[in-house]
């Protein structure tokens, strides 16, 4: 029997759209929280129509909306705001990623919600945060990656900066939103009272930039794009194999490098005092990349990986989506969650990502995929005390 997740009994109201707040809601729901997602009547979260669709709903929404309940509610109307207050009054956490000031205009700002529910943890995600001179600017993840410093490092020196092929800023902000929510709940348990968590997309990105700014401030160094290498450590790069596939090699530890050198039949590199530490290897990055590049081209990806694994050198193939669906380690770790989805009038088994992190005693689980728009409106309103007549009136007025 599936154990209840560690967040069973925690009630979450998700008011956000797109990626950031829904990512936080998904993680909380994965581990047992009752997450009620509030969506616009008629259209719902715009994420429902992003990327590839199965019917009227994208597989991206099925992923980020999993384990949640969906209700429709027009938060721009007074009646909708009244319903939201009743919902929030019984909640532990509220997630939102509207532009700053939106909740306040609806009468749902932090002061109003604190009076309504003193123990509430309100998690707010926005492009630039709730304060500061940029707070009112619209901010999406791609912009946050630029402002937060990431785009200055991506790509190759002779080409325009590139972006990562996923919504990195939004997803990282979602992780910080979860951390903030959990810290708020822990503090409430110990001391009482609620919390307001302010997560900015650009700050979520900036927090990943390691010593980018300290290196500049202390030494005047401005890092630039370095392709597939990681500046300051060597050898650590991506190499093309003879079969056209790629392998990533991280041979930048002193002992690891010596093992790597012997594995590629270059004991002279292992014995070279100029390459004995990272500083020396960084000074010889081009030379090492040329040696490893030529070695990789002389064998298949599988053969290169096997050789390096035998020498205990960290390495790995670059996997495509097809490779991942066939990988036994993903399977063994529960990262392949297969569910049936209606596509073109046929039920098709589709592989969805599993739950992270893995907990031994009270693991999370994928119980349901992202719900249909408003699938749980009647149930949730009934729980809040709205009778048949009240629900019918809300529906007739377009509130739900």
From TrEMBL:
<dbReference type="InterPro" id="IPR003673">
    <property type="entry name" value="CoA-Trfase_fam_III"/>
</dbReference>
<dbReference type="InterPro" id="IPR044855">
    <property type="entry name" value="CoA-Trfase_III_dom3_sf"/>
</dbReference>
<keyword id="KW-0808">Transferase</keyword>
<dbReference type="InterPro" id="IPR050509">
    <property type="entry name" value="CoA-transferase_III"/>
</dbReference>
<comment type="similarity">
    <text>Belongs to the CoA-transferase III family.</text>
</comment>
<dbReference type="InterPro" id="IPR023606">
    <property type="entry name" value="CoA-Trfase_III_dom_1_sf"/>
</dbReference>
<dbReference type="Pfam" id="PF02515">
    <property type="entry name" value="CoA_transf_3"/>
</dbReference>
<protein>
    <submittedName>
        <fullName>CaiB/BaiF CoA-transferase family protein</fullName>
    </submittedName>
</protein>
């Amino acid at each position: 029997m599936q154990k209840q997740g560690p967040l069973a009994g925690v009630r979450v109201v998700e008011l956000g759209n797109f990626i950031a707040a829904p990512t936080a809601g998904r993680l909380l729901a994965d581990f047992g929280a009752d997450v009620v997602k509030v969506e616009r009547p008629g259209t719902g979260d715009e994420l429902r129509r992003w990327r590839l669709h199965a019917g009227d709903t994208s597989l991206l929404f099925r992923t980020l909306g999993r384990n949640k309940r969906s209700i429709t509610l027009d938060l721009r109307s007074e009646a909708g705001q009244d319903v939201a207050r009743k919902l929030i009054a019984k909640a532990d956490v509220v997630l939102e990623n509207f532009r700053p000031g939106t909740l306040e205009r609806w009468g749902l700002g932090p002061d109003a919600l604190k009076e309504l529910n003193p123990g509430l943890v309100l998690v707010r995600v926005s492009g630039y945060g709730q304060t500061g001179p940029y707070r009112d600017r619209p901010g999406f993840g791609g912009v946050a990656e630029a402002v937060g410093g990431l785009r200055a490092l991506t790509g190759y020196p002779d080409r325009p900066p590139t972006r990562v092929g996923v919504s990195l800023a939004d997803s990282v902000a979602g992780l910080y939103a979860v951390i903030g929510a959990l810290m708020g709940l822990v503090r409430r348990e110990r001391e009482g009272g609620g919390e307001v968590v302010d997560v900015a997309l650009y700050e979520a990105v900036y927090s990943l930039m390691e010593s980018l700014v300290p290196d500049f401030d202390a030494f005047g160094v401005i890092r630039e794009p370095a392709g597939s290498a990681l500046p300051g450590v060597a050898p650590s790069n991506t190499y093309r194999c003879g079969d056209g596939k790629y392998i990533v090699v991280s041979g930048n530890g002193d002992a690891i490098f010596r093992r790597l050198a012997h594995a590629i039949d270059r004991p002279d590199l292992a014995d070279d005092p100029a390459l004995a530490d990272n500083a020396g290897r960084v000074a010889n990055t081009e030379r090492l990349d040329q040696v490893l590049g030529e070695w990789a081209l002389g064998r298949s990806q599988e053969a290169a990986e096997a050789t390096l694994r035998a020498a205990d050198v960290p390495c790995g193939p670059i996997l495509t989506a097809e490779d991942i669906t066939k990988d036994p380690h993903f399977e063994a770790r529960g990262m392949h969650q297969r569910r049936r989805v209606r596509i073109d009038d046929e039920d098709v088994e589709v592989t969805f990502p599993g739950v992270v992190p893995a907990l031994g005693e009270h693991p999370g689980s994928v119980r349901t995929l992202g719900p249909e728009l408003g699938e749980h409106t009647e149930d949730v309103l009934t729980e809040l005390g709205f009778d048949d007549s009240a629900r019918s009136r809300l529906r007739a007025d377009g509130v739900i």
